[in-house]
Amino acid sequence: MERSLKNVVVVSCGFFFLFLAYGGLQNLQSSLYSEDGLGVATLSTLYSSVLLSSMFLPPILIKRCGCKWTIVGSMCCYVTFCLGNFHANWYTLISTSILLGMGAGPLWSAQSTYLTILGNLHAEKVGKLGKDVVNQYFGIFFLIFQSSGVWGNLISSLVFGQTPSEGPVSKGQLTTCGANDCPMAPEATNGTHRPSQKLIYTLLGIYTGSGVLAILLVAMFLEPVAEKPKKQGKKRSKTPPFWSTLLSTFKLFRDKRLCLLILLPVYSGLQLGFLAGEYTRSYVTCALGIHFVGYVMICFSAFTSLCSLLYGKISKYTGRAALYVLGAATQLSCIIVLLLWSPTSTQMPVFFILSGLWGMADAVWQTQNNALYGVLFEENKEAAFANYRLGEALGFVIAFGYSSFLCVNTKLYILFSVLSVAMVAYGIVEHLEYRAVCKVFAAKGKSQGEEDEEDEGGKMRTEM
Questions:
Q1: pTM
Q2: Spatial separation of the C-alpha atoms in residues 355 and 19, rounded to whole Å
């Protein structure tokens, strides 16, 4: 196997095993710990911590430790969250969620930076366009990474499937499912008994082992990679001062393209937060029961995984704008259906169809957003990806923050509005990039014309 491709597979498999554990656990938080809103409070705290870590830590850790060891150290923070769930209470879950959040910002920024550098180096080596190779590498990564949701959710469903069901959901409870679910609703939105502590420990043991395996895999087999130094004078080759590195995340906001694009990662966090916090609880658990959460989320993970690979391969033919339109149209359609649909256990295929379509759209946000940031902000990759994770974390914080206060239909209206505005802002950025390219070609054509005129003038003088 080609060396750079081997490293892509190694980092992808590391994330696969890590998020096999964390992804399955995240989807169950709002259903497992629904008392006093502990589950959504944990997730809200977690992503608030991600928000803070994305502001300051990624550029510093990546420059000081390199991408590889930043990934390894951050993965350890995820394992502590699995351990905190063994004795779940406000202290253990909140404290370990803060620690996980502190590792999440650097983890994802290091991963995106690593793949971007690797793709550009390989493209230079084989004579291809950097953006095409980077797109391909992100497609491979998200194919493997997103498939972790299939296995993580399958494990949770098989383990919790041993829990006895309460029986058919009452008609009174069904009236509070779906878009009608509100925090003030009198009926409980949980169709099954809480799984036994023994089953919860079994699941947590499997998830913790998977997280440890991820750490060992990356630490032992991932090769460090460094970007080729640019040809600069001696003064500019010096290491930038600490505060310059620290503030680089915020300095990038002087670029108006980043200001316009920030809604894309914010929406990415909002829609994933809705899926993990609201769809699993207010639709699946409410109408079918907690043991169906994993099966429904398997469909989401399978579609987002396969579509990630597909989009990575076809983006060089279709262009990224066409994929963004596809993702937006698909998810807007899902939002409208969720607003109008009253879920019941007799409509089981609908639960899987909606999660699959949601996964198709999510694959656009995951692959194209990362590739877009890597291409547009190639000179400031660490800061750009830190801003990306900052925006995505903000979306998660908002989604889980208002989870206990707003009705589901209100949350769906918010998703619809944010996605619409984000796509308009993205269209403006594409227009700006198109104009910039046109100016470059016009300048080249003008300079070429002047050279031709000089050549003709020289010939005329020679003939005379």
A1: 0.71
A2: 18
Position with higher pLDDT, 76 vs 30: 76
∠ CA 255-260-265, nearest 5°, is 110
Nearest to 138 by CA among 315, 276, 330, 270: 315
Assess contact for 46 and 100: CB atoms under 8 A.
yes
> For the chain, what is the total number of helices (H) and then of strands (E)?
16, 0
The whole-angstrom distance between residue 7's C-alpha and the CA centroid of its chain comes to 20
Residue 104 tokens read as 């999440």
Give every CB contact of residue 405 below 8 A, 6+ residues apart in sequence: 183
pLDDT at res. 41: 81
The pLDDT value given to residue 399: 85
Q: What is the pLDDT of residues 288-315, one digit of tens each?
A: 877 788 788 888 888 888 888 788 778 8
- Cα-based angle 203, 99, 110 (whole degrees, multiple of 5): 95
Question: What burial letters (b/e) apply to 163-187, b meaning 16+ CB within 10 Å?
Answer: beeeeebeeebbebbbbbbbeebee
Q: If 0-12 CB within 10 Å is exposed, 13-18 middle and 19+ buried, where does residue 12 land?
A: buried
